Amino acid sequence: MVASRSAGRMRKLQSQAQAISVALATEYPEALCALIHKGPFQLLAATILSAQCTDERVNLVTPGLFRKFPTPEAMAGASLPEIESLIQSTGFFRSKAKSLQQMSRMIVEEYGGEVPRNLEQLVRLPGVGRKTANVVLGTSFGLATGVVVDTHVKRLTRLMGLTKQSTPEKIEQDLMALLPRNEWIDFSHRLIHHGRKICIARRPRCPQCPLLLICSRVGLPQLSQTPTGKPESSVPAKRKVGKPRSAAVRKPKPA
What we know:
single chain, mainly alpha, 2 strands
């Protein structure tokens, strides 16, 4: 009986995930990676820089960085102060500069200057975790090795009721079980665009959302009805703000 209920729930979630994927494809048919780049190396470097930083900020920084160091060979020969001065505004710039330099050297020394097309090899590179590897493999090489789970994907998939997990690794496993492999790459790109355009973290525009009828809206207040019968936007209650705590200095984890 328990197994039957579990299988039934999985089929229901798969159906919901498929409906969401179709709706996203209709709304964002040409959704692409938001990081501006030319080739897999530049995408790899840009994704490393995007840790704890917005894509918009990274896109402001990378033109100058890639103008000076466009290839693994050029970046490998750069000094840390040179790299740091170009990426300082992305945050954690010393740690990121070290990752960029060491990642480039490893690509040159172990992979002949070419970004590897293998997940296991990519995650060996300094500053590269599973998310970054999935971004590069999916966007640059068209290889669906997993589902990219960034802050938007994490927030939206939990809100939609597709997962109850809280870590990117477990959320990715849930999504891989719900979606066909040929949808893994585009699903993330489209969901990220949706999170920026409609499902905004602080004020989701639910009444204008094309996914409203298939979204579970987990954790959001119920939408009220206007006299015209249309749902009215609502905003979650403000959190109580306590005394500020001093933030500990942290290094960005490989994403």
